[in-house]
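sry for the spam today, last one i promise. C-alpha cells for design, 180 residues
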C-alpha cells in the first residue's frame, strides 16, 4: 500500500507493505525448518522544506522500519532514517547529499544459538552513512559513499582472533550511474 500526500504543500510518500514466501526455511537455532516466511515494513519519505529562492533546493526526511520472525531470520528488526538535501551547492541543482543512521538487531533465536555454542551473544549493528550524488553530465552520476559500522554483525567474533569481536569499520565506496 502506498500513499502520496502533500504536507503543508510539500510532497511525501508513505508505504506499508509485507511479503510472504511459501518455501521452507531453516531455524536460526534448532535443526528444524519452518514452512512459510513473512516480513512487514514501512517507509516514509517527506519533504519538510523547499527553498522559495531556489525551487530545486529541498530538505527531505526518510525512515524505514522492518520486522520479521526471529526463528527464521538472522536480522529480526531494522530501522534506518536520515535526511537528504537536494541541490546542496548553488548551481548544482541535480546533486543530492545525505546522511543515514541505521540499526539492525540480530534475532533472539540467532543470539540464543550463539550462547548454546558458548559464544558471546550477538546484539545490534549500527551504521552512520554519508553520501553525495554528483550529476557530472546528463548521462553520468557519480556517488561517493562513506559508512562507519559500529559492532559489525551485531558483535560477531573475529575469525582471526576468537577472543575478540570484529572492530568497528570504515567502508568507503563509490558508484557510477550511466544512463543511455
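last one done:
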Amino acid at each position: 500500500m502506498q500513499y502520496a500526500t502533500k504536507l503543508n504543500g510539500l510532497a511525501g510518500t508513505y508505504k506499508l507493505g509485507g511479503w510472504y514466501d511459501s518455501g521452507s526455511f531453516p531455524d536460526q537455532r534448532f535443526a528444524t525448518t519452518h514452512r512459510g516466511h513473512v516480513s512487514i515494513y514501512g517507509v516514509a519519505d517527506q519533504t519538510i522544506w523547499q527553498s522559495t529562492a531556489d525551487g530545486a533546493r529541498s530538505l527531505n526526511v526518510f525512515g524505514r522500519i522492518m520486522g520479521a520472525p526471529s526463528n527464521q531470520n538472522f536480522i529480526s528488526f531494522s530501522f534506518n532514517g536520515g535526511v537528504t538535501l537536494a541541490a546542496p551547492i548553488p548551481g548544482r541543482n541535480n546533486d543530492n547529499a545525505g546522511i543515514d543512521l541505521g540499526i539492525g538487531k540480530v534475532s533472539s533465536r540467532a543470539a540464543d544459538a550463539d550462547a548454546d555454542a558458548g559464544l558471546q551473544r550477538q546484539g545490534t549493528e549500527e551504521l552512520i552513512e554519508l553520501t553525495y550524488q554528483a550529476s557530472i553530465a546528463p548521462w553520468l552520476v557519480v556517488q561517493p559513499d562513506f559508512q562507519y559500522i559500529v559492532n559489525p554483525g551485531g558483535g560477531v567474533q573475529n575469525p582471526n582472533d576468537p577472543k575478540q569481536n570484529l572492530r568497528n569499520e570504515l567502508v568507503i565506496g563509490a558508484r557510477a550511474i550511466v544512463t543511455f
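The first strand starts at residue 2 and ends at 7. ok im logging off now
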